[in-house]
Amino acid sequence: MSSATTAAGGKPPITPLPEVTRLSPSVIRILGGNPGKFTLQGTNTYLVGTGPARLLIDSGAGERSWISALQRTLSEEKAHLSAAIITHWHHDHTGGIRDLLDWNSQLKLYKNQPTYLPGHHGSPVCLDQIGGAQVLLPIEDGQEFHVEGATLKAVHTPGHTVDHMVLHLAEEDALFTGDNVLGHGTAVYEDLGTYLDSLECMRGLFKGKGYPGHGPVIEDGPGKIGEYISHRKQREDQVIETLKAFTAKEDPGEGWTPMELVKVIYQGVPETLHIPAAGGVVQILHKLRKEGKVTMADGGDRWRLIDRSAL
């Protein structure tokens, strides 16, 4: 699934998007037909190229409306698919793979760590086959894909997921950002330190637009990534400052729980959003632990500063 959240913790303003939109001479966006709380207007999939052969980025969630819109658009463009490239394992990006194969069993499908796919309950599992056929080809870091009017370079950028890839479009100096950077709000991640490293990598890859996995086009791609990095740093600073204030005020030997930190940092945010916020705080705490700044008290779910001289 996708993971759209907002910096303030509330719902971002959602701008309606057409099902199919030409975004540039070489990029057409086709929505996945799966709008929702976490998927925003739906998963973005992209047709890339200008000639009779096109590349497809991501496959949506498996909604029938999506495969119909894809077929209709290709017919109107008098084009066919050369290959499909999957940015990461989440179901709302891989769910249409079966529809693509039912339509064209010879289609080449590429994915980093190709056996890493969603299981029945949304968690990743390692699968060698889909529907009895081995269909996914690996993507190497730096691998290039070419069609008329488009050269895509794949770059491994883990953090949102371990297999996450972004794709640089040379002709526009633009970046397909997958779910590492969204058109609305911010994204969640499996590992904060790894995610921040990937954001820094992404910021240096391009100077133009960002084509995200969810939401509208990002006009200033590197600028948006800079905002993401600043936001994560702000949250990290808030966690440290809150731990300092707690410790200076009450000096608890047992430390503080992530939810206790959330109730201070996210004051004014509806309590229904505190649980997902706590997940982000836990990620920050684990990053700080790796850096030797905090520790888990008594081996439980309570945290405290290591460097008390900073108070």
UniProtKB/TrEMBL annotation:
UniProt family annotation: Belongs to the metallo-beta-lactamase superfamily. Glyoxalase II family.
Organism ancestry: Eukaryota, Fungi, Dikarya, Ascomycota, Pezizomycotina
Name of this protein: Beta-lactamase-like protein
Keywords, ordered alphabetically: Hydrolase, Metal-binding, Zinc
Matching SMART domains: Lactamase_B (SM00849)
Cofactor names: Zn(2+)
Domain Metallo-beta-lactamase: 42-214
GO biological process: secondary metabolite biosynthetic process
Molecular-function GO terms, alphabetical: hydrolase activity; metal ion binding
Cleavable signal peptide: none
